Every structure is written in C-alpha cells, then in structure tokens.
Amino acid sequence: MRSHTGVLLGRLMLNIMRSPDTIITVAVTPVMMLLLFVYVFGGAINSGTEPYVNYLLPGILLITVASGVAYTSLRLYNDVKSGLLSRFMTMPIKRSSVLWAHVLTSLVSNALTIAVVILVAVLMGFRSEAGLLDVLAAAGILGLFTLALTWLSVIPGLKASSMEGATAYSYPLIFLPFISSAFVPTETMPKFIRIFAENQPVTAIVNTLRALLNEGSAGGDIWTALAWCLCIMVVAYYIAGKEFKRKLG
C-alpha cells in the first residue's frame, strides 16, 4: 500500500508543481485578509495583544486550510469524472491508496501555502517567543485540522455531480472563523452569537494555536481542540469510506 500511495502521491504533486498557481491562488485570499485586517481594521480592534497580527494569524491559518482543501475535492471530482478512478480500480493496487494519495497531497500543498502565509505575517511584524515544543505542538494541531477537513472534502469530491458542487461546501468552512475568536475576542459579541462562537470548533483551535505561539501554554483548550479535530476526522473518514465503496459498486 505504501508504495502505491507514494506513486499516486507523486502523480498529484507533479500536477501541482506543473501548475503552482494552485498554491498561489489559495494563499492570495488569506494574505489579502491579513493586509486588510491588520492595516485597515487593526487600529480599531482591541484584541488585547500587540501587534494585532499576532492575534489574527491563527484564524487566518485556519481559513488558509479551509480554502486549500477545496482543491482536494476538485482533484478527486476530476478523477471520478474522467474515469481515472475507475481505471485505477482495475489495477493491482490497494484501493485505499487512491484516497490516501489525495489526502497526503492536501497535507503537503497546505503546508506549502501555510508557509507562504506565515512568511508574509513575519514581514508584517508577526513575532513568536514560543519554544520548539510549542511550535511543534501548533504544527501538529494544524496538521490534524488539515487532515480532518481533507477527509471532509473527500465526501463531496466523490458525491458531487458538478465542479461547483465539489467545492461549494468549503464556503461555510471559510466563513466559520468569522464567528469565532479568530478576529475579535468573543466577549465583544452579542450574547446569542457569543454562545455559538465560544462552543464551535474553530474557537478552541484558534485559541490553542494563539496560546502556543504567543504564550507557550494552551491550557485546557488544547484538549478541546484535539477532541474536535479527531471527532471531525473520524466521522468524515467513516462517511468517505462508505461513499468510496458505494462509488466502486
């Protein structure tokens, strides 16, 4: 399985390297948000931290991932639509290798995009005093979040009947950080919105990343963040697996 997955991963990564505009396109929206919120709205937002880019970056990274996984749906949809997926199934390869190749491609491509966004944030004044273990923990949370959303993206990639349908699911994921602690503290929100914001997955994950990168300690939020990521990933993996088997008959 490992060798089959590696070959299929190489195929997908080669396509991305031949068309790097995918990574650039995914990076453009979060970079523009960074510029807009830091330089236009940042002066009017009291986040309690200086500079504001330090407060903002974790939420922007989640938006980056939510934008990036939409391409996983698109690539998988294209493989299904073109008949390539069916052709792979006639070859002596492990069936799950096909899906895992798409998932690992998402991890690699999103990591590259996140690196671009972080580089821009550093140029804008982002600084972190986090130690190596804190940085690794933050990277682990981001990786787990990427895996969770990627398995979620596999479902529309297999089920969609159009290109638009394959990527439309990502819009709510991109919008969700706006109703969280990603841009402003939840204490500033009206009560009924604050209740939702404080109990949805993005807030726990954003708070964890922010604490790890800025304070070096995530406290209890890290367990909530891990629970959300694992729960989403397990449920999405199960549904994606069932849909994959149904698709192959």
What's a concise summary of this model?
The chain has 249 residues and is mainly α.
Compute the number of helices: 12
- Note the gap between the termini: 21 Å
Mean pLDDT: 85
Helix content: over 70%
Description:
The chain has one domain (2-248). The chain starts with a helix and ends with a helix. By secondary structure, it is mainly alpha-helical. Helix content is 78%, strand content 0%. The longest helix is centred in the middle third of the chain and has 29 residues, at 95-123. Helix 6 packs across helix 7 (132-159). The mean pLDDT is 85.
Descriptive terms for the model:
Nod_factor_ABC_transporter, ABC_2_transport, 249 residues, mainly alpha, membrane, 0% strand, transmembrane helix
Topology (elements, then pairings):
Blueprint lengths: L1 H17 L2 H21 L10 H17 L1 H13 L1 H6 L5 H29 L8 H28 L3 H6 L1 H6 L15 H8 L2 H15 L5 H28 L1
